[in-house]
């Protein structure tokens, strides 16, 4: 019974994920190519503003000027976009599918998983672009990039848990979407996207390390740019916290789902 349930949910997740990815670009002239062009366009804008206008330099870089800043920036943005994409859509996951809530028997708890899979698709595209850029500019890659799947893996329970929690909350408090949008905008500048963690004053670094995006950005950037392996102890703690968030989100979702149909 459990095996059949897993197989059924797995098929549903796959089909819904494919549908969600294609629905984003259906009807557009360039289609799925927007998944590549959009981040590149944002990267060029940020690189121009910070590289040309503000003349920003990346501390401790072995690359020269603009190339270094662009690559470091791109890595930070790619990870942040992954988090922002999943969390930004989370409050509307349930309210956007009223038919699934009212008219059919549907496992609503898989919707955050579908959202995470969709976000992973776009993250993988960005990581491939980063890999190609590094091969072109540096000519080689460090073996440390092989551990990046593990770095991304520890974030998945956290994002699914937050998706469950925010999805349930969004049913009862519709303005939570606006709140999350504001929080994500602030979080982008309070994460090491435009700067390394080492640029933060020593006495404040612990505060920035509480940000769930920080460790992932720093680990990905270190593996790609400097051949540095992640801090395994911190990743282990991150995984434990991530699993706890997933468990809490699941419990909140199950405790509140009984009233979804009445509110929607």
Structural commentary:
The protein is mainly α and 264 residues long. It has one domain. It contains 12 helices and no strands. The chain has helices at residues 2-25, 34-53, 65-89, 98-102, 111-137, 148-153, 156-172, 176-189, 205-209, 214-226, 232-256, 260-263. Helix 3 (65-89) runs antiparallel to helix 5. The two termini are 31 Å apart.
Based on the model shown, name its key terms:
264 residues; mainly alpha; 12 helices; 0% strand; globular
Mean pLDDT score: 88
Sequence stretches where pLDDT stays below 50 over 5 or more residues = none
Order of helices and strands: HHHHHHHHHHHH
The largest sheet, given as strand count, sense and whether it forms a barrel, is: none
Task: Kindly give the count of domains.
Answer: 1
- Going by helix content, strand content and strand pairing, the class is mainly alpha
Strand element count = 0
> Could you say which overall geometry the principal axes of the C-alpha atoms support?
globular
The number of helical segments is 12
How far is the first residue's CA from the last residue's CA? Answer: 31 Å
* Proportion in helices: over 70%
Describe the SSE topology:
Elements lengths: L1 H24 L8 H20 L11 H25 L8 H5 L8 H27 L10 H6 L2 H17 L3 H14 L15 H5 L4 H13 L5 H25 L3 H4 L1
Helix pairs in contact: 1-5, 2-3, 3-5, 3-7, 3-8, 3-10, 5-7, 7-11
């Amino acid at each position: 019974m459990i095996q059949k349930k897993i197989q059924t949910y797995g098929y549903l997740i796959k089909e819904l994920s494919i549908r969600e990815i294609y629905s984003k670009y259906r009807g557009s002239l360039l289609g799925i190519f927007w998944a590549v062009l959009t981040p590149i366009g944002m990267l060029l804008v940020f690189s121009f503003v910070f590289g040309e206008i503000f003349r920003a330099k990346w501390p401790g870089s072995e690359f020269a000027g603009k190339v270094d800043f662009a690559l470091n920036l791109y890595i930070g943005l790619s990870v942040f976009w992954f988090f922002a994409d999943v969390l930004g859509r989370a409050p509307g996951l349930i309210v956007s599918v009223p038919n699934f809530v009212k008219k059919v028997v549907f496992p609503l708890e898989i919707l955050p998983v579908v959202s995470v899979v969709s976000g992973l698709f776009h993250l993988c595209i960005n990581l491939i672009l980063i890999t190609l850029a590094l091969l072109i500019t540096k000519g080689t890659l460090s073996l440390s990039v092989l551990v990046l799947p593990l770095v991304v893996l520890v974030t998945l329970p956290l994002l699914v848990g937050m998706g469950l929690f925010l999805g349930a909350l969004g049913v009862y408090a519709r303005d939570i979407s606006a709140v999350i949008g504001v929080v994500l905008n602030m979080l982008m500048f309070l994460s090491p996207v435009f700067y390394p963690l080492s640029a933060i004053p020593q006495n404040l670094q612990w505060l920035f390390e509480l940000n769930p995006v920080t460790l992932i950005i720093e680990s990905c950037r270190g593996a790609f740019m400097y051949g540095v392996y992640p801090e395994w102890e911190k990743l282990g703690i991150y995984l434990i916290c991530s699993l706890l968030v997933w468990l809490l989100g699941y419990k909140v979702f199950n405790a509140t789902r009984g009233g979804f149909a009445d509110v929607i």
